[in-house]
């Protein structure tokens, strides 16, 4: 049986099983676009590059849109670090240098968006806590219980951003306010939204929410997103 047939069969058997860039496993949540919403001031061209609109996003998370109150929100840096840290939303924005980058987000559902992402480097956040030599994997934890991971070497190589703006607009709740991982070069289920904790681990085989359900742990967007059995 080829991979396409495997995927079709699994989707037919489990209507809730869907991509995390993704689709929802909450039966009350539908994967829909945001054509009914507008974002005045949204940047649509950046340095000569035409951008997609924020309205092209789909709501397809595992438990629906998370509403995060920044007054009690904390971003934690834990695991194999010298000192576990906890930052307020304001501290992340105020204490770390922000960067901008145009990145395409590609979903396993077949849609893709080219957007201007603004955020802080994940490596800067990790460095502030001190990275242990035994750390190999970065695990991202979201407020809805979602998790995913990437090799520390990849996070460094790509200078991945923990984004707080897209197209010049503060992340809307559907897009992961206060922070969304811009996992450049990876399928959308690696782009964790509503990130509340970043954990360093020595476990190179760690699998997150969708990866434990058969999705590729590598998730390179130029490769199949579903692991063969």
UniProtKB/TrEMBL annotation:
Coiled coil: none annotated. Residues 65-210 form the Oxidoreductase molybdopterin-binding domain. Pfam families: Oxidored_molyb (PF00174). PANTHER family: BLL0505 PROTEIN, PROTEIN-METHIONINE-SULFOXIDE REDUCTASE. This is Molybdopterin-dependent oxidoreductase. It comes from candidate division WOR-3 bacterium. The lineage of its organism: Bacteria, Bacteria division WOR-3.
């Amino acid at each position: 049986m080829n991979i396409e047939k495997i995927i079709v069969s699994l989707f037919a058997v489990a209507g809730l099983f869907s991509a995390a860039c993704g689709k929802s496993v909450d039966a009350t949540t539908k994967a829909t676009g945001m054509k009914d919403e507008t974002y005045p001031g949204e940047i649509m061209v950046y340095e000569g590059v035409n951008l997609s609109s924020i309205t092209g996003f789909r709501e397809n998370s595992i438990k629906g849109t998370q509403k995060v109150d920044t007054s009690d929100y904390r971003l934690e840096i834990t695991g194999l670090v010298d000192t576990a840290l906890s930052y307020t939303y304001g501290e992340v924005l105020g204490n770390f240098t922000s960067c901008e980058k145009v990145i395409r987000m590609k979903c396993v559902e077949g849609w893709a968006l080219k957007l201007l992402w603004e955020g802080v480097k994940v490596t800067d956040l990790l460095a502030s806590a001190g990275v242990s030599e035994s750390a190999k994997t970065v695990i991202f934890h979201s407020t809805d219980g979602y998790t995913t991971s990437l090799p520390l070497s990849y996070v460094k190589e790509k200078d991945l951003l923990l984004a707080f703006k897209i197209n010049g607009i503060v992340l809307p709740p559907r897009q992961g306010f206060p922070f969304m991982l811009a996992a450049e070069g990876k399928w959308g289920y690696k782009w964790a939204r509503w990130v509340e904790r970043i954990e360093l681990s020595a476990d190179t085989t760690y699998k997150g929410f969708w990866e434990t359900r058969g999705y590729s742990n590598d998730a390179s967007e130029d490769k199949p997103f579903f692991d063969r059995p």
